[in-house]
Design a protein that fits this description.
single chain, alpha/beta, Rossmann fold, Dihydrodipicolinate Reductase, domain 2, 2 domains, 10-stranded mixed sheet, 20 strands, 33% helix, 25% strand
């Protein structure tokens, strides 16, 4: 491996607006700390993003601001040691390939892609190069998560029985108007599969798979079978509400219940059930271990900004040869991408929620009546909405991991039906 055993490391960032602002905010802080030097950034809309350029003092710092990604790489990679990619999901694969071909580091916003075939191509592209990509699933930067995983592997609380994720995270109508790819199943012939499961709450799904992995601390459980029901309250192609149960290759059940069409706010809860304890994690708040004997461990967790910075700094350490590997590689994303694909294959359709079952707020936010209780009931009992007697529900089906190759045909058919329905 050709290492970069010095500081600061030279950085380029693909993207200025949208979520890329977070990448620039952290780069600004890390440059002041002497960790990196931002050489250039690019965005085809950069002329309309002057406020961002001023906020992060691009001119004063000598940052080149360009429209095109290829131009940025041609001029600055090298001397850049890494490129941070904070662009729409369907742009990731081509940009990643361009960075990997230059044999430099790539810090890639999550998810890397939601197309299993495209993910395999991305993994193949960087094979034989010096540096693995870091995918920005930030929670693993919290050391206590890796410590907790080791305690699970050591059997401290007995056998692992199952894991679940509750996610009621409201989004307004503007969330689905922010970009041409938002809420889409496909765009220009490329799979997008934007949903609460695959995008906004994918961090937490990735966390469940991490805790369920049995092959070492940095391992993720692989799906064997998925049962799923998908719904949408918003006028989009994709799903804004997901009920999914996945069985791992080892037979462990994982349940996920999510909605963007719920009461205002963000309520996320990861639950790990063992023989002798239940572990309840509220991201950005606390982790609580409830022992069967009544003992209780509790600690606060880190903020989102701290997690992003810590993961990025750790990746810089990897590029300097101080860490053996990134926290999340492209290969580590296979379980998440596979599970998301199986959700669509199992559900076979994304059912619209009737207007009579929803409330619309002044900002266009949709709220499905009683959705929070339906989410909790599924996690508690395993009964999907169709088994709860919910009027708007439609029964889903099951899919096996070996069926993933049929995803593209399934999605294109689904997208065509949704296009005609919306």
């Amino acid at each position: 491996m050709s290492l970069h055993p010095f500081t600061p490391l030279n950085l380029c960032i693909a993207g200025i607006g949208g979520f890329a602002r977070h990448h620039h905010a952290e780069a600004f802080e890390l440059e002041q700390q002497g960790e990196i030097r931002l050489l250039a950034t690019c965005d085809p809309r950069h002329a309309r993003l002057g406020e961002v350029a001023q906020s992060f003092a691009f001119a004063r710092r000598g940052v080149a601001v360009l429209a095109g990604f290829e131009e940025m790489l041609a001029r600055f990679a090298p001397p850049a040691h890494l490129v941070s990619i904070a662009t729409p999901i369907h742009c990731h694969a081509a940009m990643h390939a361009a960075v990997a071909s230059r044999n430099i580091g790539c810090y890639l916003e999550k998810p890397p892609t939601l197309d299993p075939g495209e993910l395999e191509a991305m993994i193949a592209v960087e094979a034989g190069h010096d540096f693995q990509t870091e995918v920005s699933f930030n929670y693993l930067a919290e050391p206590w998560r890796r410590e907790l995983k080791q305690r699970l592997l050591d059997g401290e609380w007995g056998e692992l029985l199952g894991l679940s994720l509750y996610g009621a995270w409201s989004r307004d109508a503007a969330y689905y108007r922010r970009s041409p790819w938002a809420g889409k199943l496909s765009l220009h012939g490329r799979l997008v599969l934007d949903s609460c499961f695959g995008n906004a709450v994918s961090h937490n799904v990735h966390n469940l798979l991490f805790f369920a992995g049995r092959e070492g601390v940095l391992s993720w459980a692989r799906p064997r079978e998925v049962r799923c029901e998908l719904y949408r309250a918003y006028a989009i192609e994709g799903a804004d509400t997901v009920f999914s149960e996945m069985i791992t290759e080892e037979g462990l059940p994982l349940r996920v219940a999510l909605s963007h069409a719920c009461e205002p706010g963000r309520d996320l809860l990861e639950i790990i059930r063992c023989e002798r304890a239940e572990i309840r994690i509220r991201p950005y708040e606390s982790v609580e271990i409830l022992h069967r004997g009544g003992q209780r461990e509790i600690r606060e967790t880190d903020s989102a900004a701290r997690l992003f910075r810590d993961q990025f700094v750790r990746y810089l350490a990897y590029l300097r040869g101080e860490e053996e590997r990134p926290l999340t590689t492209l290969a580590d994303c296979r379980p998440l991408v596979t599970w998301n694909a199986l959700n669509h294959l199992a559900a076979r359709a994304i059912h619209p929620i009737p207007a009579a079952a929803c409330t619309v707020d002044a900002d266009g936010s949709m709220r499905i009546t009683g959705i929070e209780e339906s989410l909790r009931a599924f996690l508690r009992t395993g009964a999907f909405p169709s088994g709860q007697g919910v009027g708007w529900s439609r029964r889903g089906d099951a899919a096996l991991a070996g069926e993933v190759s049929g995803l593209r045909e399934c999605i294109l058919e689904m997208a065509e039906r949704e296009k005609n329905a919306v």
